[in-house]
Amino acid sequence: MLTACGRESPPPPAPVGDWHWKLPTGVAPPPVPADNPMSQAKFELGRRLFYDKRLSGNGRISCASCHPQDKAFSDSVALSLGSTGERTLRNAQPLANAAWRKSYTWANYSLTTLERQMDGPLFRTDPVEMGINDHNLPTVLARLGADPLYQREFARVFPAEGQPLSLANIVKAIATFERGIVSFDSRYDRYQAGRAGLSAAELRGLKLFRSEQGQCLRCHGSPDFDDQMAGHGDSLPFHNIGLYNTDGKGGYPFPNRGALELSGQPADMGRFRSPSLRNVALTAPYMHDGSVATLEEAVRIHAEHGRRGAKGGDGRRNPWKDAAIDRIQLSAAEQADIVAFLKTLTDDTLTRDPRLADPFAARR
């Protein structure tokens, strides 16, 4: 739009308050920061940034490189390859329903919003993932600022700011997109709503999942199948399931020693956040370091009360292990039934939803 003086006028502000959550009965809308309200325009801007490889130090990696849609926004390798050519220290977690999480990353209980968490992969002095730092930040912003679409959309979404295209607003837009990645339409959800059936094995697995025998609800009892879902309890639990015992005293390999890295408390050794089990059949490999290749192996480790390995020690004897792990009593057949049930948590609509898809796909 041109003014009478021939200069381009700013675009009209994007509508606010036009976002609508589509949620099943029993799931309340997630908490949203007051300074970053949801809007459709901001969600669309965040989606574009999420898939844009120009938003990295080397211009070759996007957020979606480690969180592709067809893997429920997780990665298919143990440790993702960052923009610096190095591997990340921990397995990339799926982003579906991240809006409801009480904490982010595997073991940092101080990161309680998506905006705060994003500082890690997006901007660090010694970056690995997206590789943006003080030295190359102006170059990255210039790349994005040269795109007329970004010039227009940042001005629409953040109309009150003199420099709308900033790192802070990039973070707000991507966080808005990630909050909008919602997954509550699996076959299990349709069964709960009376719109689908489950097989005999799946029903046996569901019964075991809910039983004291399986102990699954201890760490995966919320509607998101974790124990850190907003609106479901006030605690912020982390768990040691006996994956390692490197020194015979409960040690985990450095630097992946769990919440201990932040708290310094010995009892926090090996304690990590229980991930959501939604779409778990799509998110292999498993655990904080991606060291468990299959869903069957993950269930077996729980049923055997920990993992025994030549290098990792006998995790079954880890003194810091959660007591609930030793109460699990599952035969091989029962483990197979639980795996069958867990596969019903796959949400195929999530992996095919065009609202969440790569907007650059047609060009690539």
Explain this structure to me?
The two termini are 31 Å apart. A two-stranded antiparallel sheet has the order 1-2. Residues 1-7 have low confidence and may be disordered. The chain has helices at residues 40-51, 63-66, 114-117, 119-122, 137-145, 148-157, 167-179, 187-192, 200-209, 217-220, 260-263, 295-303, 332-342, 348-352, and strands spanning 308-309, 313-314. Helix 1 crosses helix 7 (167-179), helix 9 packs across helix 13 (332-342) and helix 12 (295-303) crosses helix 13 (332-342). It has 364 residues and is mostly helical. It has 2 domains: 40-183 and 354-363, Cytochrome c-like domain (Cytochrome Bc1 Complex, Chain D, domain 2, Orthogonal Bundle), CATH 1.10.760.10; 187-346, Orthogonal Bundle (Cytochrome Bc1 Complex, Chain D, domain 2), CATH 1.10.760. The longest helix is centred in the middle third of the chain and has 13 residues, at 167-179. The protein contains 14 helices and 2 strands.
